[in-house]
TrEMBL record:
Organism lineage string: Bacteria, Pseudomonadati, Atribacterota, Atribacteria, Atribacterales
Residue span, ATP-grasp domain: 105-313
Family: Belongs to the GARS family.
Cofactor: Mn(2+); Mg(2+)
SUPFAM superfamilies given in the database record: Glutathione synthetase ATP-binding domain-like (SSF56059), PreATP-grasp domain (SSF52440), Rudiment single hybrid motif (SSF51246)
Protein name per its UniProtKB record: Phosphoribosylamine--glycine ligase
Organism name: Atribacter laminatus
Pfam family, one: GARS_A
EC number assigned by the record: 6.3.4.13
HAMAP family found in the cross-reference section: GARS (MF_00138)
Pathway: Purine metabolism; IMP biosynthesis via de novo pathway; N(1)-(5-phospho-D-ribosyl)glycinamide from 5-phospho-alpha-D-ribose 1-diphosphate: step 2/2
Transmembrane segments: none
């Protein structure tokens, strides 16, 4: 079996680590990969989607998996399908559920999926007039298109809201992603993530998780791609999960089928759960989350390649998930300055203590790393994910932070409170 994975982050390292445990995998390629992935498979840099199609043909790849959203939004699945190559993921049309927040909100409204009240604008003056119409703050302003997880702003007053509108629609800080914006009510509660596998007919819910998006302890400061995560999320009780299934997953699937969208892959539900246990969808993603993947996939006893093949073949109804009862918590180590400016090229020490054995209690997944002069060095804002198992989330956190004490690089930064919201729910 020859497998190819598109992507270069911690999520992709975790996927490769999981797939590598299947003895049927003889060749594994990652485009472009990173310093950690390079010890598990062959990393190649390819510049275009067409180059990826050609590479898959030349190497006779049996199955291709996609980590990040951008290739899906650009139509990679469509190209592979046209070339009669096996790939898991939604086509470009279905990927609009993530690539266009306007499309996603309209999909939710049409299919009666609970979400925040919203208005859509394609002109900055119209948006600003609306913001001056006596609305209750705070509000949420979102860029329509992809913005690397940074296109969502919570604004506290009219002046701040106008500044965001100008930045998005006039100054184009995210380019064409700001051609349209959404202004929506700000929901209060706690966020959680549910991801599920969907093969067009059947679905399979993955273990719940929660991530910490803010850069600073106690959830302060700007949003990031994620500073840490844990699974399961105690907030998502069996009762809450049933409501998610009935009120969100079922109408989502009905909507997909009614619109005849070609969707075989992972569905990510970013949820807000209010203090009254009402559940609203904040966003859809059309792929696995990062850093949620790093705390969800290692808990699965199922083979990830087998699950991926079931998605591609439409045989998910035959699958039964088996989940490790142990809790798993991960802390992201970043370059100081992230999500703003930061330095790269810093040598990372201490990784030799973490060989990432399949049954290991501590796993270290690489995000922004590469091998240079036989050394692992930093290449990004989010550098490593240090994940640890425990009988409780509090114990998992203790084990993770103990492991972090053995790792170092210049200007290393991390939050010291990952999981704090969940600890009191464990009892």
């Amino acid at each position: 079996m020859k497998v190819m994975l598109i992507g270069s982050g911690g999520r992709e390292h975790c996927i490769v680590w999981k797939i590598k445990q299947n003895q049927e995998v003889k060749e594994l390629y990652c485009i472009p990969g990173n310093g950690g992935i390079s010890s598990l498979g062959v990393c190649n840099t390819l510049n275009t989607l067409q180059d990826m199609v050609q590479f898959a043909k030349e190497k006779e790849i049996n199955l291709t998996l996609v980590g990040p959203e951008a290739p899906l939004a650009k139509g990679l699945v469509d190209l592979f399908q046209s070339a009669k190559l096996a790939i898991v993921g939604p086509n470009q049309d279905a990927a609009r559920l993530e690539s266009s927040k306007v499309y996603a909100k309209q999909f939710m409204k049409k299919n009666k999926i609970p979400t925040a009240q919203f208005e859509v604008f394609n002109r900055s003056d119209s948006a600003i007039t609306y913001l001056k119409s006596g609305l209750n703050f705070p509000l949420v302003i979102k860029a329509d298109g992809l913005a690397a997880g940074k296109g969502v702003f919570i604004v506290e007053d009219e002046e701040e809201a106008e500044d965001v509108v100008v930045d998005l629609m006039v100054n184009k800080i995210f380019g064409d992603a700001g051609n349209q914006i959404i202004v929506e009510e700000c929901l209060e509660g706690e966020e959680a993530t549910i991801m599920f596998l969907f093969d067009g007919k059947s679905y399979c819910i993955l273990p719940s998780s929660q991530d910490h998006k803010r850069i600073g302890d106690s959830d302060v400061g700007p949003n990031t791609g994620g500073m840490g995560a844990y699974s399961p999320a105690p907030l998502v009780t069996d009762q809450i999960l049933k409501k998610i299934e009935v009120n969100i997953i079922h109408p989502f699937i009905e909507g997909i089928q009614q619109e005849k969208l070609d969707y075989r892959g992972v569905v990510y539900l970013g949820l807000m759960i209010t203090h009254h246990s009402d559940i609203h969808v904040l966003e859809f993603n059309v792929r696995l989350g990062d850093p949620e993947t790093q705390v969800v996939l290692p808990r699965l006893r199922n083979d990830w390649l087998d699950l991926s093949l079931a998605l591609y073949q439409g045989s998910l109804s035959k699958v039964k998930l088996e989940v490790d009862a142990q809790k798993l918590l991960g802390v992201v180590l970043t370059s100081r300055g992230y999500p703003g400016n930061y330095e790269i090229g810093k040598r990372i020490d201490g990784l030799e203590d973490f060989p990432n054995e399949p049954q290991g209690k501590v796993l270290v997944f690489h995000a922004g790393t590469q091998i240079k002069d036989n050394q692992i060095v930093t290449t990004g804002g989010r550098v490593l994910n240090v994940c640890a198992f425990g009988d409780t989330l509090k114990k998992a956190a203790y084990n993770a932070y103990l492991a972090i004490g053995k790792i170092s690089f210049e200007n290393m930064y991390y939050r010291r409170d990952i999981g704090y919201r969940a600890f009191h729910r464990e009892g």
